[in-house]
Amino acid sequence: MPGRPPAYPVRAPSGVRARFLVRGLALLLAVLAAALPGAVPAAAESYVPVSGAGSTWSQNALDQWRANVKQYGMTVNYSGTGSSDGRNQFRNGTVDFAVSEIPYGIKDSGVVDPAPSRKFSYMPIVAGGTAFMYNLKIGNRRVTNLRLSGEVVAKIFTGVITTWNDAAIKADNPALAASLPARKIVPVVRSDGSGTTAQLTKWMSTRHGSLWDAYCAKAGRTTPCGETSNFPTSRGFVGQSGSNGVSGYVAQEGNVGTITYVEYSYAVSTTGFLVAKILNGAGYYTEPTAQNVAVSLGKAEIGADLTQKLDGVYTGDDPRTYPLSSYSYMIIPTAQESNFNPQKGKALGAFAYYFLCEGQRSVDRLGYSPLPVNLVQAGLEQVRRIPGVTVANIDIKNCKNPTFSADGTNTLAKTAPMPADCDKQGATQCETGTGGNKTPTQTGSASGGSGSGGATGTGGAASGGATGTGGPGTGGTGDGGAGSAGATGGAAADGGTGDGAAAASGGADTGGVDPQTGRPLAAGAGDLFGMPVTTANGIGGSLQTVLMVLGALILLAVTVAPPLVTRHLTRRRRTAGGS
Q: Is 501 or 267 the better-scoring residue by pLDDT?
């Protein structure tokens, strides 16, 4: 019909369509880039490798951070050789940074650890708790809910309490008292210079000084003993090197009767094993969860050099506190000395910016507690002192640290749950497991040392044990003694003697416990921490791939789309004109 409009739909000119396509893709790219700030820009930078050494207490966190920053082109080498060696290497200029739980200048066994001649400062990196990981069975049933008072801990690590059925341990564990075995306790201590040892002995010398001094005197140390990085080994004790060494030794299935001190992370994310709940100043038995550590460190005194004084932490009267909570520090250079140059400063500064902000987001999953806002701010100020650092204006509100709040208070501490009534000192005792194994301790007595049902966990994280099937049985305490040949002996397992330091490596118990977090699987829905720690092969690396693909699409759209659209519209107009 005359005057009828063309049959094809009206289309925008080709240039307009192309611009819309480009803008749409660019908007999508911007949205994805904003979803994970900081994931891409650093990838364009180039960094020289940097190296450090020291603490194994904080090594699990450091290793995760080192893996994460590989996607940004950073290579951070780290050797967990112990805090003492790390401080020595930094002093000698053989590493670019060190990590330690204690500062220079501490008098250890009558000898002062001197500060280096090179200029340096301390920077807090992560918080956590020194836990007491143990391996104990009643018959074939694994004990997962052990409780210990501070005095009992001190007596175990000074050789005063030597068997698991000691009256003092029974008093801490009313639900287990009738069946605790007459098995020898084998304390497993660090054989190397250790910040973890220094933390334990500082606590013992402060809270149980007479016990500690008496033990030191027997070991030939001068008194008062004070804190030491080198534990004086006694007969019946086992010495192992590093946190992996002591925790792996205790986690071995055969080493029943052992107990060690180690950062909570090694129970939660490395071995999937148990820790004892420790009695606090409020009369509750607690473990060093991220929340409990955050509450506890509200009592820490932070010096002008950012080092810590923990006397108030030891005696905290909040029911949620964990007495052996503390911080770990990085020792960083503040001048171009000992082969440290601006290129290394740029790399070390970028790494520090990462772990002070994004790195704190999910350290709870590894068994640590994130730094509070005041220490993050103080740490960022120290980063500026590193020679060669590319100073970044970090808006800490974007760090997503679970401790941060609008009013400056520690959200993690404010929201920490109160302990259960059964965790209060008294006649009741919670059955729930701890650390990396939340399986409740079975309370039924095993007949003849065995029972039915239940299975042990795999990968070194034994769990549960067999459930008892009847009344009080015989032979349920397990037989055999403990090795007592000094640093090379082991814990006997039903008549056998332990003989090695092979660390249990493998996963956690698979009986309803998340192997990454050590929590019951049902607890994941209410996770307080919004974003898991990523690795170079995780979300960060995947996002980079997506963005590269989108960038290629944009380039393709800019170069190819306009002529294609123009050709298509011209063809449609010709067809319409000829009809």
A: 267
For residues 75 and 66, give the distance between their C-alpha atoms in angstroms, rounded to a whole number: 7
CB 228 within 8 A of CB 109: yes
Dihedral sign (CA 33, 35, 37, 43): negative
- Tokens 């090379």 belong to 488
CB burial class (10 A; 0-12, 13-18, 19+) of residue 452? Answer: exposed
Phi, psi of 133 (to 5 degrees): -85, 135
Question: pLDDT per residue over 457-490, tens digit each?
Answer: 333 333 333 333 333 333 333 333 333 333 333 3
Q: How many CA atoms lie within 13 A of 84 on its CB side?
A: 22
Is the distance from CB of 236 to CB of 117 less than 8 angstroms?
Answer: no
Per-residue pLDDT tens digits for 326-378: 999 999 999 999 899 999 999 999 999 999 999 999 899 999 999 999 999 99
The pLDDT of residue 44 is 62
pLDDT at 109: 79
Which whole-number Å values give the CA distances from 196 to 91, 146, 496, in the listed order?
20, 21, 30
Secondary structure class of 216 (helix, strand, coil)? helix
- State how far the Cα of 579 lies from the Cα of 574, in Å rounded to an integer: 9
50-61 per-position pLDDT tens digit: 999 999 999 999
Residue 416: name the closest of 550, 536, 253, 296 by CA: 296
Say which residues have a Cβ less than 8 Å from residue 482's Cβ, sequence separation at least 6.
183, 184, 185, 186, 236, 257, 489, 490, 491, 492
DSSP 270: I
Q: Mean pLDDT, to the nearest integer, of 437-464?
A: 48
Q: Are strands 147-148 and 277-279 parallel, antiparallel or unpaired?
A: parallel
**What band does 253 get if pLDDT is binned at 50, 70 and 90?**
very high
Quick check: 132 and 275 in contact, CB under 8 A? Answer: yes
Q: What is the dihedral of CA 378, 383, 386, 391, to 10 degrees?
A: -130
| The two structure tokens encoding residue 163 | 């068997």
Closest C-alpha to 130, from 373, 318, 293: 293
Tell me which of 24 and 110 has the higher pLDDT.
110
- Contact (Cβ atoms closer than 8 angstroms) between residue 442 and residue 271: no
Q: Using DSSP, state whether 547 is helix, strand or coil.
A: helix
